[in-house]
Amino acid sequence: MVATKKQSQPFWLGGAAASMAACFTHPIDQTKYRMQVMQKPPNMLRTLLTFASRDGIRSLWWGISASMLRQSTYSTARFGLYNYFAKAARQRTGQQRLSSSWEIACAALAGGMAGVVGNPTEVALVRMCADGAKAPGQRFAYKHAFDALLRISREEGVATFSRGLAPNIVRSVIMNVSQIATYSAAKRQLLSTFDLEDGMPVHFLASLLAGTVATTACAPADVLKSRVQNAVAVDGSVVNIVTESLRTEGPRFLMRGWTPAWLRLAPNTVLTFVFIEQLQKLVNMSQDARETRSATGVISPQKL
């Protein structure tokens, strides 16, 4: 993917890049979650402006602690595990660059495992973001992400953290495959077809395409995940949610919030992959500097 260059990608790098991107896109992310749990929401811009005017501009960053915690678990796992599996696959096959089928397999496996790892923080994120769409008396009113995790486990039981796990795993697999495979393929195509330099314009175009593909592919699972995780009733299963939503809203509910999802995921994908590429360059430069100091005898790493 991104880091098959001289220096392998550190396990933490993908999560750090995704956390940085989330700081910029959280208001859109929050609006998406609110629209997904509302039965008859207005359009994305009106929804965002309505809540901003009612609660203030700062309210658009409500739930940011849960977003950062989610990226620190989910995105760290999905990018880190992908690179681990891809490295193992290259060693097994003897290929320096994996085929598309191997990339998809590695991304799917990493995505599924990351969906399990990130599900508890996903529950907290959905609830904290959707709170503003409810009447004051119906809100969870968590103070921050850790307060949400503690109260959920205490008030509803640890089993609540598995709510929406199935659609979250499906969404995570689709997300990882559509983002990573699309980004890698688009980047290779741009570099080979147009003879471009491996720089910011290529990273931007490839990640924009990856974000659009991922948004469309993930929309149904994303809506189901949000509705199940936001439910409090014990019968808030996927089957019951689908049945009731189909009865009251029709099949179009599966694409509910696509516009804010794209407006969030497309720039989020662009920022994430751009940050990954830039952080990787810093890692490479740092490694080069350490090797140079060691080779010239200025500083021996063994003595540090």
Please explain how this structure is put together:
This protein folds into three domains: 11-61 and 255-278, no CATH class; 63-162, no CATH class; 164-230. The protein has helices at residues 13-37, 44-55, 64-93, 100-130, 145-155, 165-193, 200-230, 238-249, 258-296. By secondary structure, it is mainly α. The model is unreliable at 299-304 (pLDDT under 50). The longest helix is centred in the last third of the chain and has 39 residues, at 258-296. The chain is globular, with a radius of gyration of 21 Å. The protein has nine helices and no strands.
Provide the succession of SSEs: HHHHHHHHH
Share in helix: over 70%
Distance between the termini: 32 Å
Please state roughly what percent of the residues sit in beta strands, choosing from under 5%, 5-15%, 15-25%, 25-35%, 35-45% or over 45%.
Answer: under 5%
Radius of gyration: 21 Å
Low-confidence stretches: 299-304
Provide a count of the helices. Answer: 9
User: What structural category do the secondary elements indicate?
Assistant: mainly alpha
Question: Count the strands?
Answer: 0
Shape: globular
Largest sheet: none
**Average predicted local confidence, pLDDT:** 87
**Total domain count:** 3
Secondary structure layout plus pairing:
Blueprint: H1 13-37, H2 44-55, H3 64-93, H4 100-130, H5 145-155, H6 165-193, H7 200-230, H8 238-249, H9 258-296
Helix pairs in contact: 1-3, 1-9, 3-4, 4-5, 4-6, 6-7, 7-9
List keywords for this structure.
globular, 3 domains, MCP_dom_sf, mitochondrion inner membrane, 0% strand, 304 residues, mainly alpha, single chain, 72% helix, disordered C terminus, transport
